[in-house]
Fold these 4 entries.
Entry 1:
Amino acid sequence: TQLLEQSPQFLSIQEGENLTVYCNSSSVFSSLQWYRQEPGEGPVLLVTVVTGGEVKKLKRLTFQFGDARKDSSLHITAAQPGDTGLYLCAGARDKLIFGTGTRLQVFP
Amino acid sequence: DAEITQSPRHKITETGRQVTLACHQTWNHNNMFWYRQDLGHGLRLIHYSYGVHDTNKGEVSDGYSVSRSNTEDLPLTLESAASSQTSVYFCASNDRGFSTEQFFGPGTRLTVL
């Protein structure tokens, strides 16, 4: 049973466009992490959100944790080719539950 | 610099063979994890360890085993490899449980023919 659903699964956009990736669940998490993974490498943590309604910004990336701590979103402003990769959300309960991933391709 | 390494990076084996994937970390982390990554499933937890001589089953532990004889290493063994175990395997570690950042190795791509 997949507790964390990410959408969209694939996203192909031009440089300069904005995009939002969603991470949804019916379960409550104590915190939620976002990772980015590049080909041939392991995931690397981008951010952890802990409080319901929390918003964190990392340069052009904005992360939000839902008020009920069941969902999260990642918004990228003015995407660049360097943003290309697989984005994974992961919710913490008694263990870390990973989402299905969103593969982003940004073309110059 | 501290790091986490996995070996081999690529492995091809035959059905029924025993295979061991190595994971070594120099972070001195107590917690170590093994995941498999498959298209459409994300990362799924196989086994994890909170310290020397401690091992626990994860979501997809059938057909896999681990042992922790020291802080640095958590080898993953496939007792009798099956084609369904073809996947990319990632090892990770941290020092404060599941809810904090996990540091991942580069992965091992395993193909079972």
Entry 2:
Amino acid sequence: DAGVIQSPRHEVTEMGQEVTLRCKPISGHDYLFWYRQTMMRGLELLIYFNNNVPIDDSGMPEDRFSAKMPNASFSTLKIQPSEPRDSAVYFCASSSSQRIGTDEQFFGPGTRLTVL
Amino acid sequence: SQKIEQNSEALNIQEGKTATLTCNYTNYSPAYLQWYRQDPGRGPVFLLLIRENEKEKRKERLKVTFDTTLKQSLFHITASQPADSATYLCALDGGTGGFKTIFGAGTRLFVKA
């Protein structure tokens, strides 16, 4: 398996623009997570899905952030409009409830977002 | 509020020595605790999971302890190697059926040859 795939790997945009981050989880995994990592706040859970349904979005910072999972193999995280304080590395991770004895999450390589 | 503390200062040790990293938490009763490794420019990689009813777990050169009374986990790397240099994150989960995992900020480890 190729692991969790994220695109783009780097994104530079100007304040006010819409940003869409994409994620393809590992095939067969039924949980998908979006995290944000900054030096100041570390790794923060934004939202997670189970079987394509959003379960907990309490970590989403503002209404400017939205996430969707239209099918088991694709998810997007959208920021509109983007602001400089949104600059961070965004990680997507997936996990399987079938892995008995562990709740290991498999992380993608991340998208480094810079908002100017 | 729930809080996880890991040494913010980097840990520098000599190759061959044992590295010990600490994870302390407050206002939380996790069902299990995980340790992840993160290299620069990459996502975290899972290393070990230890449950609340387990005191210690080992995997090759890695050893994790979990003291729910002290609210602390220790992560040991024995016979450390320069390739072990990375940031190590601890993560707690309530295990309530959901996946509300909370990560610590991580400790950077440097192993000198």
Entry 3:
Amino acid sequence: DVVMTQSPLSLPVTLGQSASISCRSSQGLVYSDGSIYLNWFHQRPGQSPRRLIYKVSNRDSGVPDRFSGSGSGTDFTLKISRVEAEDVGVYYCMQGTHWPRTFGQGTKVEIK
Amino acid sequence: QVQLVQSGAEVKKPGASVKVSCKASGYTFTTYGITWVRQAPGQGLEWMGWINVNNGNTYYVQNLQDRVTMTTDTSTSTAYMELRSLTSDDTAVYYCARGGLSPDFWGQGTLVTVSS
């Protein structure tokens, strides 16, 4: 199975500052169609996960442009610029290229 | 608007089975597969499996494949996930989500509690 390793696992941030979460895969994520199915999700307490980013860097509809995804090969990053209070929660990366699909452990973002 | 509405919370005894439903609306059901994910209390997300709604083909995570069955009913746009021989380790919130490569819309979750 492809192991997705996130860091850090806990990320205290100051409102208005930026935050970065790393996600590394144990193997490359290029799918047969040439795309890389690396996704990012945000989960607030008591809520369902919400997809933020798909295929490395594509922002979902309604997701603020403060969120950006980047990366290639086996290293991927989610960046949140100008963190707001509503950004707290747990962020997960997920690879959709290989069977079984796998998630990272999650990164808990909280306000300092 | 796309919606996935799941069945209500369940309490089961060890050894029993549970069947969770996920009713889709707002899109053509046969256009997307359905992914199932679970989350134990205080833990992360665990991918369980996926079903191709068009032909019923499934892929299950290895550690569940002897106990899980995913099905769909295209006449009602509903997906189902049945888990058998439940133990306390199966206590979790179970989610369905649309799609497989990049699940986009998610159900509200169904809490399954396994307790004697």
Entry 4:
Amino acid sequence: EAQVTQNPRYLITVTGKKLTVTCSQNMNHEYMSWYRQDPGLGLRQIYYSMNVEVTDKGDVPEGYKVSRKEKRNFPLILESPSPNQTSLYFCASRQTGGASYEQYFGPGTRLTVT
Amino acid sequence: AQSVTQLDSQVPVFEEAPVELRCNYSSSVSVYLFWYVQYPNQGLQLLLKYLSGSTLVKGINGFEAEFNKSQTSFHLRKPSVHISDTAEYFCAVSVNRDDKIIFGKGTRLHILP
């Protein structure tokens, strides 16, 4: 089954404790992206990657890091989380250079930073 | 730069009544347009998309949208809603095939019994 998986689904942590949210897709997509969703603000892009070893900042990259060492994986790293990073996070992937532009989303990771 | 405006943050509608969710975009170039749906406690999934051709686009679950270039709109419609349509709906725009997608802030559809 074609899917994007994220782990963990729920996470409560404390300020300053480094964490990683994993994202993996099995569709051989080149493009992967991270979004955060906050009430009244919709989805805002954090980082995206057009292919392995190619990453770029989205609209709200501050406080986040990403890496793309393999095509299927795109982890999101918070090196020193703060309460304003409490949010719902989505990973997504899609093809590039083709007629299909649909983004496939993971189920989301709800992060609470206290 | 392109942007997307969803004119209503919440839309209440009675079951079996028609609904229209409004979306306007701004862009100086041709765009690709999308509607995504997010059911409670789930990720987003594509409802429909406009890339080119016919301005009336049909999607899943009985939804359709009409691309209106002169009014820069892409409103989503369904002739008869069901309780299962309770969700948040996001309009999105992209200006080329490899560009990022800009999402609107979402419209929460409440179905009233």
